[in-house]
Design the sequence.
């Protein structure tokens, strides 16, 4: 299962936003639970521990990466069930991410936004987010999880072309 890439690059005053989305036939509270409850995030991204509140730092395990590393994530905004913003720092740099949820007629749209100061590495980052969002879809539908090899390197060119 590999769908066409959904990522798009939106210019901002401080750089660019990489925006990817998925729509679910589910209520907003249920989709919110899929992206915030540790038992449910474990199914598609990784579990987490800590006191999740704005201004606090949690530990997140990246269960679908080699060696399943843990990382720290600072919760910047938590406005259930509409907006979650977190920031992380790792060897690749600082990551500023938002999950934005909207609901209409029993459907919920989830947008993942990565705020970028530079588009360097977009060819690697974009396919990764497509993979994780399709992991979320598969986890919610209880279908087999996708294979990252179906995303990278085949989607690399698409994301690199967004910077042209």
Sequence:
């Amino acid at each position: 299962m590999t769908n066409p890439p959904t990522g798009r690059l939106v210019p901002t005053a401080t750089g660019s936003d990489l925006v990817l989305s998925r729509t679910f036939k589910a209520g907003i509270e249920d989709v919110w639970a899929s992206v915030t409850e540790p038992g449910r995030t474990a199914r598609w991204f990784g579990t987490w521990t800590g006191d999740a509140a704005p201004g606090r730092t949690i530990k997140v395990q990246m269960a679908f990466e080699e060696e399943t590393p843990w990382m720290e994530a600072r919760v910047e905004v938590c406005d259930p069930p509409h907006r979650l913003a977190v920031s992380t720092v790792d060897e690749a740099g600082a990551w500023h991410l938002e999950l934005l949820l909207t609901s209409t007629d029993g459907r919920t749209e989830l947008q993942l936004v990565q705020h970028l100061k530079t588009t360097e590495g977009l060819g690697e980052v974009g396919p990764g987010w497509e993979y994780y969002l399709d992991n979320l879809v598969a986890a919610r539908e209880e279908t087999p999880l996708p294979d990252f090899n179906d995303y990278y390197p085949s989607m690399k060119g698409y994301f690199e072309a967004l910077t042209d």
Summary: The chain has four helices and eight strands.
